[in-house]
Amino acid sequence: MFNIPKTVATYWPLFLTLNVVFFNEYLIYFAKIGFTCDWPCDENSCISNALRVFLIADTHLLGDLRGHWFDKLRREWQMYRSYRSALHLLSPDAVFFLGDLMDEGDHSDWTSFNKYANRFDSLFGSSSGHPKVHVLAGNHDLGFHYAVSPFRVGWFNSRFNRSLVDVVTIKEQPFILVTSMALHGDGCRFCQEAESQISAISKELNCAKLGNCSNITSRFEPYRKPIILQHFPLYRPNDKECLRDEDFDDKDPHRDEAYRPQWEALSEEATDMLLRKLDPRAVRVGVCHLPHESTVIGLYWVLSIVLLIWVLRFVVIELWSKMFRRFRRTSSHSHFLDKLLKSERNGLKFSALTARFPTWISCVGGPASVLAGRPVFLSMFVVRSASIHPPAGHLCLKFSRALRVHTLVYLLLARMLRFAAIQALY
Hints:
Elements: H1 6-36, E1 53-56, H2 69-90, E2 94-98, H3 110-124, E3 132-136, H4 139-142, H5 150-160, E4 165-170, E5 173-178, H6 189-210, E6 227-229, H7 268-278, E7 282-284, H8 296-318, E8 324-329, H9 335-340, E9 341-344, E10 347-350, E11 359-363, E12 381-385, E13 395-399, H10 401-424
Parallel strand pairs: 1-2, 2-3, 5-6, 6-7
Antiparallel strand pairs: 4-5, 8-13, 9-10, 11-12
């Protein structure tokens, strides 16, 4: 047999806890991304100078109104850790965030907006300048079309160096970033500005395509079909006719739900206008919120059970001789209490009760149940016989500070795990 150090043998659940937390909150991202994610290659061959970009949407950084601090901490840490791990392992040329960067930007003031924007930069910004991060606005950043404020549009454009329609070229591949909320076609100020910019870009694309840009300065030479990036998807009744992804679509319960034009998707007119004027190579969008499953919470549940067993074992075996500071029994007691309580060298235990003596236990601070033959860990309790009134006697126990601290630590851990499990369900 191996000689296990006494410290390890005694505190092995703590070492297990540290290892589980370290794996679930750090190493698992490198393992998952490193073993299951890679850049797609054409015909089993990868081109060294191929364009590689990340497309990320709907980070929904929680705000002050609807965000609980623990839920906010959990979400932001997981997004930060997965994003940084992916950057380290895959090294993209650029990163695009396709809207809904924040959850409450649509009704924030100047101070709150800058607070959310700074938080976004701290999580997803590139301190080294590579890869370049490009963002565009979603409805949770500016609001839906009817609620878009000129001030908020100005804040977003100034803070992220963005306009309603932008062109970004990476390795000679043009990307056109479009603000979806400005494509309602109702003649509003933002719609007119966006349509004017799209028309100007269309002229540049046409002249580059025809090779006749003598009178126009084109950003698209040599000509390549652009890729449109926006927050709302193009017009479609629902996702039923879209190509299925075996990893997600079979689990999507909302696949057949109807998309409302100008709310969950562009209108049919706006879609036709974009496709006609820009003739894109592809269109990449956000908004789609697909469900996912996680096994991490299951590991934490197993860990909580292990900790519970260890805490009870630690209290019973290690602190048994120190847990009582004072033991007092009343002088007036019946044969029932003599049968109920036994004083042993290692402490006190409840003996098995016969059916003739049903009991109930009331605790200071709340009810509790006791199993026959098991120790009870309460700061104070009274044992009464249901057949004797008034009580024939009572037992008053006071516990050491170490026991109270261990009990409070476990209760706090259990409450946090319960909250994390509830949050993981939606």
